C-alpha cells in the first residue's frame, strides 16, 4: 500500500535530505533519531553544550527528545512541536554504553569516576529521558516560542525550529518551569497547537 504524500512532499524531502547532512556536521548536538516514510513525524535528540551557568540545569546524563509533526498546511502553518519522554532510545544508549565500557579501563586520558552518582559500577552513564527545565517549557513538553506562533512564515523550516530550541536551552540559566505550569498541564490538550499556550 502506497504512503499518502504530503502536498509539499518535495519540500519535505529536500528538508529531510538537508537534515541528514547537517545533523552530522552543521547542527552539532542535534541528531535525527527517527522519522516515518511519509516524512510527517520526526523525533530528534537535542544535546546541550552546558556552561558554568547551566551545567546543573542540564546535566550530561539527561537527554532531550523533540517530536515534530508536520501539519497538513505546512509550510504555511507551523508544525506541532513538543518535547517527549523517549525511553526506547535511552534503553539502546544505556545498553550500548554498558557494553562498550565493560571492555574499557580507566586511564589518565579517559578516567572512570566510580564516585559519580550518574555512573554505574563499570563507569557507564545512566542516561535518562526527561523534559528539559526552562521558563518557557511546560512539564508536559509544550513549548512557548514565538517561532511556533506569530513569527512563523513559510520561509521557516524544521532546521530553524531545531536551532531556535537548542539556542533557547543553551542560553538558559534559570532552573524553573513557567509560573502556570501546574494549572496548564491539568487542562492542556495533547496537541500544543490546540491550546492557548502563551507565546514568548
From TrEMBL:
InterPro entries recorded: Ub_conjugating_enzyme, UBC, UBQ-conjugating_enzyme/RWD
Keyword entries, A-Z: ATP-binding, Nucleotide-binding, Ubl conjugation pathway
Entry keyword ATP-binding: yes
Pfam family, one: UQ_con
Composition skew (Basic and acidic residues), residue ranges: 173-184
Superkingdom assignment: Eukaryota
UniProt KW Iron keyword: no
Record's signal peptide: none
Molecular-function GO terms, alphabetical: ATP binding
SMART domains registered for this protein in UniProt: UBCc
Region listing for Disordered, in residue ranges: 94-121, 171-200
Domain UBC core, chain residue ranges per copy: 7-200
Full protein name: UBC core domain-containing protein
Source organism of the structure: Candida tropicalis (strain ATCC MYA-3404 / T1) (Yeast)
